[in-house]
Design brief:
Elements lengths: L2 H24 L2 H12 L5 H33 L2 H7 L5
Helix pairs in contact: 1-3, 2-3
């Protein structure tokens, strides 16, 4: 098997791993959204305001990280010359 095909298979495997990591991260979003809706419906107090903001920050971070992982998966799936050079360094 040529080295270029091995690099392509490796980049696709990495891409698949990143997609599943992104989906696993997104699995927490419904629970966080439920917690946010719970705390949003309660009367304002210092503790509940803190928990509301904490859940909101966690929700946003899960969404941002999952988006970044998905974009990285798309980039590795394409297996551009930079990734090919990284996965298959020349022997100089």
């Amino acid at each position: 098997m040529p080295q270029k095909e091995l690099v392509l298979i490796a980049s696709r495997a990495i891409s698949l791993y990143l997609v599943f990591w992104s989906l696993g991260n997104l699995a927490n979003v419904p629970a966080l959204a439920f917690a946010i809706s719970h705390y949003a419906g309660l009367p304002a107090s210092a503790g509940q305001d803190y928990l509301y903001k904490l859940q909101l920050i966690q929700l946003l971070s899960h969404i941002v990280v999952s988006t970044g992982l998905f974009l990285a998966a798309v980039w590795t799936y394409r297996c551009g010359p930079k990734l090919e050079a990284y996965l298959s360094p020349s022997e100089n």
